[in-house]
Design a protein that fits this description.
This protein is mainly α and 224 residues long. Helix content is 82%, strand content 0%.
Length: 224
């Protein structure tokens, strides 16, 4: 049976319709869907294993959907070639700052090294974040939750913050969203502007690679 897959799709597209009618960063389709689905599952006592099994098709489509991000990158190839130095420097600095700030804040508030390792890869896409967390001795399942929360905060607050700071250039906004809020930020950027979505998807990929490479070397230094 795929009852819960159809229920998930209906709730998500209803939330998306609601979001299109009432423009507000809080009306994020994913956030609204989560707020509706979790109470329903809890009230009906539906185990996670049942829900996960019913949604196996959606889970399978996650990986091809990442590949689909190549199209907006191709469409902006001329811009990427023109600004590749800025892109690489911004992604490198953003990745390092994301790892350093998240980990140091966690340690400052008394987190264990295991929890700090769990939080460190919070700003990259979920599959990579879980792999990095596992390699550092963290808890991948908790990392997945932290990644979703980071993405939601970026998707909801990223554009209003850019407006507040008077950041208007599509390249800057896109790179910022992709660097800090991975796929959820990229989705929000793409809905706002095609070019922003392209640069956000580029940052998503580059920052995932940078974090995967640097995390094993940076994490021990942060524990000193």
């Amino acid at each position: 049976m795929m009852l819960w897959m159809f229920a998930t799709l209906i709730i998500f597209y209803s939330a998306r319709f609601f979001s299109s009618k009432f423009k507000n960063p809080i009306n994020n389709p994913l956030l609204v869907s989560i707020c509706v689905l979790i109470p329903v599952l809890m009230v009906l006592h539906i185990p996670y294993s049942t829900y996960f099994h019913d949604n196996f098709i959606l889970n399978y489509l996650l990986e091809p959907s990442v590949v689909a991000l190549a199209y907006p990158l191709y469409a902006q190839l001329h811009q990427i070639r023109q600004h590749w130095r800025v892109i690489m420097f911004g992604c490198l600095l953003g990745s390092i700052m994301s790892m350093v700030t998240g980990t140091l804040i966690a340690l400052f508030f008394g987190a264990t090294p295991e929890l700090a390792a769990t939080i460190l890869p919070k700003s990259i896409t979920t599959p990579l974040a879980m792999a990095v967390s596992h390699e550092l001795g963290g808890e991948p399942s908790i990392t997945a939750i932290v990644v979703v929360l980071a993405g939601l905060f970026g998707a909801i607050g990223g554009m209003p913050l850019a407006k507040l700071l008077r950041i208007t250039h599509p390249t800057a906004k896109g790179l910022t969203m992709g660097t800090t809020s991975h796929a959820l930020g990229t989705a929000a950027a793409a809905e706002n502007d095609f070019q922003e979505g392209a640069f956000s998807s580029l940052a998503l990929v580059i920052c995932g690679i940078i974090t995967s490479i640097l995390a094993p070397f940076l994490y021990p230094l942060l524990l000193l």
